[in-house]
Fold ABC transporter ATP-binding protein.
Amino acid sequence: SAVLELEEVTKVYGERSDRSPVPALRGVSFAVRAGELVAIVGPSGSGKSTLLHVMGTLERPSSGVVRIDGVDAAGLDDRALSQLRALRIGFVFQRFFLSEHATVRENVADGLLYAGVPAVERRRRAEEALDRVGLADRAGSTPPQLSGGQRQRVAIARALVGRPAVVLADEPTGNLDSATGAAIMALLHELHADGATILVITHDPALAERLPRRIRMLDGRVAADSGDPRAPRDP
Ligand code: ADP
Ligand code: ADP
C-alpha cells in the first residue's frame, strides 16, 4: 500500500509575480510504500527541497496530485492539511529547530501539541521516542547542553513521537561532521528496520549508496529511481 503518491507533480515559484517564474518541479511521479527507506539525491537546485515540501504538504503543487495515505491533499483546506501533517507526517530539518530553553523531553512532547494528546500521555510518549533514538538519559537536559548529533536525535524523536505514516528529512546530516552524520544515518536505518517509512534528502553519495532506494532529481525531474522498475536505472 502506498503511503505517498505523486502523479505528474509540478511546482512553479513566482507564478503570480512580475519576475519570470521558476519551474522547480516539472512532472514528478512516484509512489512510496509503507516501510520504505528512500534517499532523494541530486545537485543543488534540482528540486529536492521543493519536492520534500510538496510531499509534506508544506507547499501546494502548481499541478498534479499528492496523496498521503490515499488522501488527495488538493481536497483539503489549510486547516485540514495542518491536521493531516500533525497526524501523518514527521519532519526533520538540517537546522534542528529545537527550543533552547525547553528540556529535551518538552521539545519532543511538543511534537504532539496538535495531535490532541493529554499532557501526561505526551510526556510518556516523548520518553518512549527518546528511548528509540538512544537519548532516554538526556530527557531533562536542554539542547545547548547537547552535541550536534544529539540535537538531531532529539529532532528525530520529535518527528517520531506522533507515530507518523512517513518521516521526511531534509539534509538531516548537513550540519554534522561525517562521523556524526553517519551515526544519524545508522539511526534512520534502525528505525527503518523497525518499520518506519522514511524519505531523506542527502548530498552525501556515500550515505545515499547504502540506502535501499534512491531517487535522483535533475532539473526538476526524476532522472533515475532505483526502486521503480519502470523508471530508468541509476548508472
Ligand atoms: P534543491 O533542494 O535540490 O537544492 P530546491 O527545491 O531548493 O532544490 O530548488 C529548486 C529550484 O527552485 C531552484 O531553481 C531554486 O532556486 C528554486 N526555488 C526554491 N525555493 C524557491 C522559492 N521559495 N522561491 C523561488 N524559487 C525557489
Ligand atoms: P535549508 O535547507 O534552507 O538549510 P532547512 O532544511 O533547515 O533549511 O529548512 C527548510 C525550510 O523548511 C525552511 O526554510 C523553513 O521555512 C521550513 N521549515 C523548517 N521547519 C519547519 C517547520 N517546523 N514547519 C514548517 N516549515 C518548516
Observations:
- The beta strands are 2-13, 22-33, 37-41, 63-68, 71-72, 89-92, 166-170, 198-201, 213-218, 221-225.
- The two ends are 28 Å apart (CA to CA).
- Helices lie at 48-55, 78-88, 104-109, 119-132, 148-160, 178-193, 205-209.
